Amino acid sequence: MTVNAQQSQSPTSTDRIEKHMVLRAPRARVWRALTIAEQFGAWFRVKLVGEFAAGETIRGRLVIPGYEHVTLEMLVERLEPEHYFSYRWHPYAVDPKADYSAEPTTLVEFRLEEQAGGTALTIIESGFDRIPLSRRAEAFRMNDQGWASQSEKLARYVEAQ
Fold it and tell me: Which residues of the chain register pLDDT less than 50?
């Protein structure tokens, strides 16, 4: 895997996280790892209930040590087979005492392109500037680190198959 993880040049440097990588795996394999709930859960470390479907919300508990109390809710926006997958969620919503339901969500996008010897993948999460100021910087920092780590996990998962 070649990982070139960088923040994009956007109008504000706090609104958008962007990670680029080339995975040594066919695009169909990467697509399945992203859009089949059981496979997504295997590398992301979340136990999802249901399947990804446009317009539907899928939920699941994290199985990451120290975060087992966190339930992810992901509203699937678009699925364009083997090209594009997006969902909305509440970034770094890990405080069990907080109610995040009234907060805006960020948009997570996965863009896949054919690349010699594998698949080019871009992961973008945008919309942080709309998150309440009291937790915006931490949500951005934690998700930036999180996507760097998750990118590596995804690469190991798809390249091992």
Answer: 2-12
Please state the pTM of the whole predicted model. 0.92
- CATH superfamily of the 2-44+79-160 domain: START domain (3.30.530.20)
Rama region for 19: left / alpha / beta (φ>0; ψ in -120 to 50; rest): beta
Side-chain-side CA neighbours of 32 within 13 Å: the count stands at 9
Contacts of 115 (CB under 8 A, 6+ apart): 22
Sketch the domain layout of the chain as residue ranges.
2-44+79-160
In tens, the pLDDT along 132-144 reads: 999 999 999 999 9
What are the residue ranges of helices labelled H in the chain?
27-35, 37-44, 133-160
